[in-house]
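Below is how a single chain appears once it has passed through the pipeline. First comes the sequence as given, then the structure the pipeline wrote out for it. We keep one example in the README because the format questions we get most often are answered faster by looking than by reading.
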Amino acid sequence: MRPPLSALAALAAVAALVTGCGAGDDWSRPHPRPTAVGALGAGFVDAARRPRPEATTTPRPGSWNGVHPPADYRVVLLTSGHDRPTRTLVTAVRSWARAEHVSLRTITASGPSDLVPSATRALAMRPDLVISAGNDLIDPLAMVTPNHLAQQFLVVGAELAEPTANVTAVDWSGASFRGEGLGMSSTYDAGSFTDRRCSAAVRAGVAAVLHDLTGIVLWLDRS
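Resulting structure:
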């Protein structure tokens, strides 16, 4: 005996809640290595001299606007903290993901003891990119990222003191937190985390990663 249509609809709804994604957003299957849609504009980096890992470069404002992620780009937003800068960064990532039709999932650390486990959960999802928002995650990422060089990370509004080639950061004078051992920058300014700058940081950072300009720091003081 076939179940009634109402029962089938209820089962489908439960399945959707469990998976958290639609049929076109199945992370259980591998997909091709993502490539950029569009090209970097003039002045993003010096075309004759690619920045080396750990280098800091100042891209021309808007030189990243022509770059978009491919279809079904898989991103985990890893976040911790409820301060205004972190909330603004989270909003910027989510707005970017909606505009670009990115497959986005969010992992929020529940407290200090969950910082490293939350990064481990993000790795287990095998995304194309992990985007980190929140200063509390910097020290845990410094521990985790060197052991997972195949996974790309993007840190926005902060940076790792000694990043490996798989960690790209976007920073500016009012941000630049580099871990508890170094303390907060003397120029730190929570007010510098504006909607516009955070949005630019996300787009510029993703554009760099998609063009294999990784392990560097993008400095956005002019944005």
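The mean pLDDT is 87.

See the next section for the split statistics.
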